[in-house]
User: Which sequence fits this backbone?
């Protein structure tokens, strides 16, 4: 969308390619994402967004106005211990841990993380999106990319976004999807295939 030049390097997490010695030479944290810009390495998604937007002057994605930028920074810092943490733990409890342990999900843990995930969505509904139509202001910024990706993890795991309970969030999701096509669907092809498989499996047990 930005026309920033890049060469993608896919890392197969399912094959544990992120924990190899070769990969740890690039990212010692053994996680994704990571970028190497002519040898300059960054290992955190928020820092990567900021760096690329500043280097290539993508001021629509990361405003230069002090207060407008502060709004994007505000969300980027808030999300770590809220929507990101709760959504990731819900996804991990539902999908990752059972696959690693070969045991069914802990229902009590699932309920706990689902409640916390919905609490974070309630914050999106009644604080972030009540204040402005996007998470970082009145237009699409990288704050919205952070938000939509963290929201999509539990959705990929089979959970639903309650449109009646969270109408602002629902409308925001539709706007972000529409404004980032066709890349949104391309980026979420595998998660959406996972969702279809999970829902199909659940329906077959009914």
Assistant:
């Amino acid at each position: 969308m930005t026309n920033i030049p890049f060469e993608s390097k896919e890392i197969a997490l399912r094959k544990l390619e992120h924990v190899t010695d070769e990969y740890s030479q690039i990212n010692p944290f053994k996680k994704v994402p990571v970028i190497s810009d002519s040898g300059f390495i960054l290992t955190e998604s928020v820092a990567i967004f900021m760096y690329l937007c500043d280097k290539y002057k993508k001021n629509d994605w990361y405003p230069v106005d002090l207060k407008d930028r502060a709004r994007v920074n505000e969300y980027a810092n808030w999300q770590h211990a809220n929507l990101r943490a709760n959504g990731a733990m819900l996804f991990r409890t539902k999908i990752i841990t059972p696959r690693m342990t070969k045991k069914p999900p802990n229902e009590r843990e699932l309920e706990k993380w689902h409640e916390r995930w919905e609490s974070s969505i309630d914050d999106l509904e009644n604080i972030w999106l009540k204040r402005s139509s996007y998470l970082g202001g009145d237009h699409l910024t990288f704050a919205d990319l952070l938000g939509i990706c963290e929201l999509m993890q539990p959705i990929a795991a089979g959970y639903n976004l309650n449109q009646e309970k969270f109408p602002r969030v629902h409308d925001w999701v539709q706007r972000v999807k529409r404004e980032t096509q066709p890349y949104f669907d391309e980026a979420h092809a595998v998660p959406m295939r996972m969702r279809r498989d999970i829902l199909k499996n659940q329906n077959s047990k009914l």
Notes: Residues 13-43 form one domain. The mean pLDDT is 94.
